[in-house]
Amino acid sequence: MDPHLVTALNGPLLELEKNVVEATPSIERWFRLEWQDHTPPFYCSVDLRNAGFKLAPVDTNLFPGGFNNLSAEMVPLAVQATMAAIEKYCPDAKNLLLVPENHTRNTYYLQNLARLIKLMRMAGLNVRLGSISEEITGPTELSLPDGSVHVIEPLIRINNGRRVGLPDFNPCTILLNNDLSSGSPAILNEVYEQSLLPPLHAGWTIRRKSNHFAAYDDVVRRFAKLIGVDPWIINPFFNHCSEINFAAREGEECLAANVNSVLVKIRRKYREYGIKEKPFVIVKADAGTYGMGIMTVTDASEITGLNRKQRNKMSVVKEGLEVSDVIIQEGVHSFERVDNAVAEPVVYMIDRYVVGGFYRVHDQRSEIENLNAPGAHFVPLAFSHPHALPDKAAEPGTAVPNRFYMYGVVARLALLAASIELERTDPEMAAI
Amino acid sequence: MDPHLVTALNGPLLELEKNVVEATPSIERWFRLEWQDHTPPFYCSVDLRNAGFKLAPVDTNLFPGGFNNLSAEMVPLAVQATMAAIEKYCPDAKNLLLVPENHTRNTYYLQNLARLIKLMRMAGLNVRLGSISEEITGPTELSLPDGSVHVIEPLIRINNGRRVGLPDFNPCTILLNNDLSSGSPAILNEVYEQSLLPPLHAGWTIRRKSNHFAAYDDVVRRFAKLIGVDPWIINPFFNHCSEINFAAREGEECLAANVNSVLVKIRRKYREYGIKEKPFVIVKADAGTYGMGIMTVTDASEITGLNRKQRNKMSVVKEGLEVSDVIIQEGVHSFERVDNAVAEPVVYMIDRYVVGGFYRVHDQRSEIENLNAPGAHFVPLAFSHPHALPDKAAEPGTAVPNRFYMYGVVARLALLAASIELERTDPEMAAI
Questions:
Q1: Domain extent for A145
Q2: pLDDT tens digits, residue range A67-99?
Q3: Domain co-membership, B80 together with B179
Q4: Which residue of B has its CA nearest to A405?
Q5: Which ipTM value was assigned to this complex?
Q6: Residue B80's closest chain A neighbor by CA?
Q7: Taking the alpha carbons of B315, B320, B326, B332 in that order, is the dihedral positive or negative?
Q8: Which of B205, B237, B257 is the last residue of a domain?
């Protein structure tokens, strides 16, 4: 089952794969040295788009759900990576408090939760669930799809308010699997004695995609020099507009101008590489997730011509978070196919390690559209393939492990960018 | 393909599996704390024997070959563990010098070498091969079974003799895959600036199995208390005799007395648990490997009745190393079967992580004999099984992942014992 090789790689991407596979030891050493200076987020998933001539991350999620979509073969890898992560934060940790999303009635999300609890348990932690949802006012039973029953209860402050925990449960680590789209709750403020992972400023009320891709720019510039490729091959152009109000039609000039400037840059690159595809950009909320507030645009005139329905769709994202900052990102075609439907690879990492991935597949969407939408399904990526090692001898573009390795490398560049982004946006660092 | 479940577990081992699976978080935390105090060997393989009522390590190899026998699915796990190990010794390492066994004409060994080179390369290291064999006097081409061609050359001292390397190759780490049965070569003495892994005193001219099992006694005593089981369930009795000369029939009294005392202790335990099997002991060289110099004994009288051929067989092991120290170890039946042949699990670890394993299978041997002998073949253990996580809800003794987890735990106890053994026997520590 290797659906992804349906996509033929061409020109620049073939070259990239060749360079990446050839340079494996230097690449791994480069990452090792980077991780001396930067701490990876606890976990992370990265959406990639493979256009055949270009491979780029388009979204980096610091509160990944969907661990249930990874193949079961990858579980030992995830456990091992979790052990490495925990050892860094709390080597003598016994207890981990997991804070899930508020919508705990979604079966898929509960499957994710069950998988996460098992991973943490295997890594040597007692896991309990703490909620920041207003609906959870006391201990509430939660039956998970794997048959296990857990109790979820409201977070409380313990140890004279110095720490966060549950009654009779004093965790060393608080792991957020809630992206804080509904705001950062007061109870999580001023947590100094415990590891709060990821930190509050990774939540979508504070985080901005444009900060992430600015950090990614810097990471890619250095990486591209290391292996000798054009950074554009793995990096989408982007611009950014603030003070947008879609409903009130404010900021349209900024948007239109930036859409145009990104399109001009893409056209120039397409000419350079002789690419015949039609350039497009993705306009999306600079904060927020869940595939909401996303638009595919092929011409700046589309921005000024938005109808009311389209404007409404763009103006709010998950949990009613209002959109005022917008990122205009080079669109990357997704020419990968699973059973003839458009597919994009999603790579999962824990600590600095790739622990699996899957294809997000959508048979109602085209190769220039966002696939993170209702109707998508998931096909595990065979990262632990029988021939999981890159093969230097293979013809570029023909070997599964080589392509997966390249996916893992690009996803880790986004991971590194996330860690640099979080350093740069850390409010406590700014205060010093 | 789950051949191992042919062995029904009974009484004490069912109890062990139950306790181990139940206590997963405490066990993993316990190991995590142990690894704060002790550094695991770079790599290690452990031979286990499963008697249904008892599960015990019988040999702990610090220079494991046979990496080629691990399933390809386990490769990413091994790479990840290698990264963790390297980071500890040489975070900015570029170069690793691998010192293979001297018998580089054995195809199976060359497959092992090819696998090791790939693992190291994937972990971000340039690998070159250095030899301590007298037969390698200059750069010699070595064609590996995977089609790659490497050059093996004699080790030299570089940097004014302060370091070990090759011409134009200055490694940070020197990884021995040569157990030094033929002695510790002078060129490896006084290596202070580089990581020599494992250290010279892990080589068979210095190492003693009895030191290992003494350390294992201590580890198991503490672990058994943690999970509330009789330590004997995972620990074979042993005694030790020195100044043995099989050829000259010296030391036979010591041997016979100790064989008897171990048999008496086993009988007592068998009575306690109502075990009907016939007790036996394994008499083997206290130093050395390769399944040489090993004897199964069921009565002390067999020792004094050895004929010349048997005495000759016991008196030397690999590379002609003479046997003067002998360990008398409780025999553990191997009631596991693969295709009706006796099988024993071998678990591989890199750093502190289980990275795979296989069954060593021998259809010409009985369940009370050593299986590490010509004619053995290997069946990968499905450590990365579709349901690789232990399942608390499963009926004890019925679930593959639960049994594999138990194997991994016991193997890691032996790994921990090895690290304590190496601390205790470190000549530099003794000098302080």
A1: 71-205
A2: 999 888 788 889 999 999 998 888 887 899 999
A3: yes
A4: B122
A5: 0.81
A6: A353
A7: negative
A8: B205
